[in-house]
Write a structure and sequence with these properties.
The chain is an alpha+beta fold. It has 14 helices and 12 strands.
């Protein structure tokens, strides 16, 4: 009994901590930083992380833009997915979702994105950064030019303009190919910052090999322009004022979004395969809010029905099971915030389903207890036998459900079915927690009730429901 009281105290403490985290209240900064799991930004513990269908945002479908019949290099799309994912994370999008679909497509979900056009351009750009020698020409930001790395950049740009995929840009030298002095491979890092006058610029660091190469070139071209070109478009063409070694700045009339976008593309490298946008879907926040309200209402109604069912059918043990079920719901919400789990409509469906499944274990246990009592066992022995003998069925049933969740998760992850993946995650978390609350927490409450004078109540056939 002393050991049971210690366990009960631990359960009560865990419940209070979970309840504090689960409630939609402001939490101290130190706690939000402590559960950020290595991230620089504190985790928002006040609100649950909502997915695209609940929060609103943009879904982009990308496809490898290669000639028909051309085979992609092995692993090209997997590498492209990783780079796209890094670029999306660099945009500051909360819990984006990037998945492969088949062997030529990538799905990108951007919940709550404010500037979808800029985000899409950042994601799909091949990111071929070059430092180009203008020679005797005068280049300016926004011009489209051919380079030795991209000799068809002008033709590609003209085609995109005709199709309305990009705005008209000046093309002053359509028949000239400019020499690429260096490529973006010499860069180690690039970060968008503001100078002392508040102008946005990109600070960059060079690799050990790139440092010498960049220094030798800038030393020999002091006073000349050095065009910084991305995918054939001149981003900036500053004049070299001094030899640069180790690090430098890219300056120009950048907005904050432009500077951050360029820094992301430079930092995470070029895509191994060009991508084109196949489909863009925008989900409004109003639809998401309606979905949240309806899901919340359905969840509350479902929970109340389950609580009432257990109370009517199993009386006093059902009341103890209801307490454990409330503890179960609180733990679920807490884990959703701490992991964090991105809640979508299918994810909420998985959570609501797990609430119903959470009482399955209690039903097996209580029915087994009734059988033991009808066979003439003492109350204490019936309680212990009910839990111990029902455990194999509970374990096997939940294990089969977890195996199904693993298959659904694999399917959703492999084929880009994020809705299936979200359902599998929340259902698996719910099933795992239900084994703890239904078996461990409910048994602890029953033992505590027996040890504090509740045996007479439990011996009542009316209160035991048999």
């Amino acid at each position: 009994m002393r050991q049971n009281n210690a366990v009960l105290a631990g359960i009560i403490l865990l419940f209070l901590v979970s309840l504090y985290i689960a409630l939609p209240v402001d939490h101290p900064t130190w706690l939000e930083k402590a559960v950020a799991w290595g991230s620089d930004a504190p985790r928002d513990l006040k609100n649950l992380t909502l997915g695209l269908d609940l929060k609103g945002g943009t879904q982009v479908l990308l496809e490898a833009d290669v000639p028909p019949g051309q085979t992609l290099d092995a692993g090209a799309m997997s590498t492209a997915k990783i780079i796209v994912e890094r670029r999306v994370n660099g945009l500051g999008v909360t819990e984006p979702n990037v998945q492969l679909q088949g062997d030529r497509r990538i799905i990108v979900e951007l919940p709550g994105i404010k500037n979808p056009d800029r985000a899409i351009e950042t994601i799909r750009s091949t990111g071929q950064l070059e430092f180009v020698d203008p020679g005797d020409a005068t280049l300016q930001s926004g011009m489209i030019i051919n380079t030795t790395n991209r000799p068809n950049a002008v033709a590609e740009a003209q085609k995109a303009m005709e199709e309305g995929l990009m705005e008209q840009r000046p093309i002053p030298y359509p028949d000239r190919v400019f020499e690429t002095a260096m490529t973006g491979d010499i860069l180690r890092n690039a970060v968008a910052t503001q100078d002392q006058y508040g102008q946005w610029q990109i600070n960059f660091e060079l690799t050990s090999d790139g440092t010498d190469q960049f220094y030798e070139y800038t030393k020999e071209h002091i006073g000349d322009q050095l065009a910084i070109v991305l995918d054939g478009e001149v981003l900036s063409a500053p004049v070299i004022n001094a030899a640069i070694r180790g690090s430098g700045q890219i300056t120009g009339n950048f907005t904050k979004e432009e500077a951050e976008s360029l820094a992301i593309q430079m930092r995470y490298g070029a895509l191994p395969v060009p991508l084109k946008v196949i489909d863009v879907r925008t989900i409004g926040a109003s639809l998401g809010q309606d979905s949240v309200q309806q899901s919340l209402r359905a969840g509350i109604i479902g929970l109340i029905m389950v609580l009432v069912f257990m109370l009517i059918l199993y009386r006093l043990p059902g009341f103890l099971a209801d307490i454990a079920l409330i503890f179960y719901v609180t733990l679920n919400i807490t884990l959703f915030k701490l992991i964090p789990v991105v809640l979508t409509l299918p994810g909420i469906a998985g959570f609501l389903l797990s609430i119903g499944m959470a009482v399955d274990a209690n039903i097996l246990i209580f029915e087994r207890m009734k059988e033991e009592l009808r066979a003439g066992r003492s109350l204490r022995l019936a309680v212990e036998s009910g839990f111990s003998r029902a455990w194999p069925a509970i374990r096997d049933g939940n294990l089969s459900t977890l195996i199904s969740c693993a298959v659904l998760y694999w399917f959703g992850n492999s084929f880009g079915a994020s809705v299936v993946k979200g359902f599998a995650v929340t259902l698996a978390i719910g099933v795992t927690l239900s084994m703890f609350t239904a078996v461990y927490a409910t048994r602890t409450l029953m033992r505590a009730f027996l040890s504090t004078g509740g045996q007479r109540l439990l011996e009542s056939r009316r209160l035991m429901g048999y």
